[in-house]
C-alpha cells in the first residue's frame, strides 16, 4: 500500500499541469468547514512537544464545497481566523478553534485583470501569499505563470503584476513556493527547484515591491536546506529571521517536513549562504502530510505558528491545520 501511495504522490507532485481531479472555476459563496481535532502523535495522544515547538492543537478540515482544499499558503489573523489560498487561485476564509469568527466564512476565486480573463482556470497556480498589515495589500506568487501579483485591500482587485527573468529561469513546477514580505518592506523568494551551481536553492531578495515594474533587480542568495528537503513556504519573524517550511517524500516515510530558521544579514552580499537551522521535524508517528502552508500570528504576547497541508483534492491525502507555540 505504501508503494502505491508513494507512486501516486510522486505523480501528483511532478505533473507539469494541475491534475484533472482539481475543481474547475469556483463561484463566490459561503463556505462551511468541518474541523475534527487530531493528536500530534497517534501513539502518544498526550504528546505536546516537537523540537522547539509546543503543540496547541490540530484539525483535519473538510467541506462539501468542491473548491475547498489544496491549500498552498495561508495567513492567520487573531485566534483562528484563517485566510487560505489554494493552488488553483481560490481564496477560503474560515475560523477554527475557540472564540468567535471575526468575519463570515467564504470561498471565492482570486480577481483577475481584464487582459487575463482568457487564461484557463488551472493556469492560476497560486503557491505563495504574503501581506502588508499597514497598507492591507496582498501579494501572490504564481508558479506556472512565474509571476508575482499585488492585490488591493480585501483582494478587491489586481493592482500590478510582474514576471521576473530570475523566476522564469526556475522550473515552472518548482518555482515560487516560498515567498514573503519582510517588515522593513523587502521581499524574499526561494526557488523550490531553482538551484544554484553549488546545489543550493536560488533565493531572490528585492529591496522593494516585486510587482512594480520600477523595482530594482533582486540580488541572488543561496538557501541551504536540510538535507533531502525542499522549501514549500516561508514567513518572516522580523527583518533578519525567517522560518522556512521544508518537505521531503521518501518510500520509507512518505511525506515528512521540517520547520527551520534562517538568519538574513543586515546587508547581505550576492551569493550569501542562508543555512537552515532545524527547529522541528514532522514525521511518523507524528502528523505528517504534504505540508505547504506556513503562517504566524500573535496570541496574548505569544508567537503562534500555523502549518497547513495540501491534499491535492486526492482521496489519500488530508487537509490538516496544525497550531504550535514557538518557544
TrEMBL record:
Residues 1-24 form the signal peptide. Pfam families: Phytase-like. Coiled coil: none annotated. The keyword rRNA-binding does not apply. Residues 67-313 form the Phytase-like domain. Keywords: Signal. This is Phytase-like domain-containing protein. It comes from Sphingobium yanoikuyae ATCC 51230. The lineage of its organism: Bacteria, Pseudomonadati, Pseudomonadota, Alphaproteobacteria, Sphingomonadales.
Amino acid at each position: 500500500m505504501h508503494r502505491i501511495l508513494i507512486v501516486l504522490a510522486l505523480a501528483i507532485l511532478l505533473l507539469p499541469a494541475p491534475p484533472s481531479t482539481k475543481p474547475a472555476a469556483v463561484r463566490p459563496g459561503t463556505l462551511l468547514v468541518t474541523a475534527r481535532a487530531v493528536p500530534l502523535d497517534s501513539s502518544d495522544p498526550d504528546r505536546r512537544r516537537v523540537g522547539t515547538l509546543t503543540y496547541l492543537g490540530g484539525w483535519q478540515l473538510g467541506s462539501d464545497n468542491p473548491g475547498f482544499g489544496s491549500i498552498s499558503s495561508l495567513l492567520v489573523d487573531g485566534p483562528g481566523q484563517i485566510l487560505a489560498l489554494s493552488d488553483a487561485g481560490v481564496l477560503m476564509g474560515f475560523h477554527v478553534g475557540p472564540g468567535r469568527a471575526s468575519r463570515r466564512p467564504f470561498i471565492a476565486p482570486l480577481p483577475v485583470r481584464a487582459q487575463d480573463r482568457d487564461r484557463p482556470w488551472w493556469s492560476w497556480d497560486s503557491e505563495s501569499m504574503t501581506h502588508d498589515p499597514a497598507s492591507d495589500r496582498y501579494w501572490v506568487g504564481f508558479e506556472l505563470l512565474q509571476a508575482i501579483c499585488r492585490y488591493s485591500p480585501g483582494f478587491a482587485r489586481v493592482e500590478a503584476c510582474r514576471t521576473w527573468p530570475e523566476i522564469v529561469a526556475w522550473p515552472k513546477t518548482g518555482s515560487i513556493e516560498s515567498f514573503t514580505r519582510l517588515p522593513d518592506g523587502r521581499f524574499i523568494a526561494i526557488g523550490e527547484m531553482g538551484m544554484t551551481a553549488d546545489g543550493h536553492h536560488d533565493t531572490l531578495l528585492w529591496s522593494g515591491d516585486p510587482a512594480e515594474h520600477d523595482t530594482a533587480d533582486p540580488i541572488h542568495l543561496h538557501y541551504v536546506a536540510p538535507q533531502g528537503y525542499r522549501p514549500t513556504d516561508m514567513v518572516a519573524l522580523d527583518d533578519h529571521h525567517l522560518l522556512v517550511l521544508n518537505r521531503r517524500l521518501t518510500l520509507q516515510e512518505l511525506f515528512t517536513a521540517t520547520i527551520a530558521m534562517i538568519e538574513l544579514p543586515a546587508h547581505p552580499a550576492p551569493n550569501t549562504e542562508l543555512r537552515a537551522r532545524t527547529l522541528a521535524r514532522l514525521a511518523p508517528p507524528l502528523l505528517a502530510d504534504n505540508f505547504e502552508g506556513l503562517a504566524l500570528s500573535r496570541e496574548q504576547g505569544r508567537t503562534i505558528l500555523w502549518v497547513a497541508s495540501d491534499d491535492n483534492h486526492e482521496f489519500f491525502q488530508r487537509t490538516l491545520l496544525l497550531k504550535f507555540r514557538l518557544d
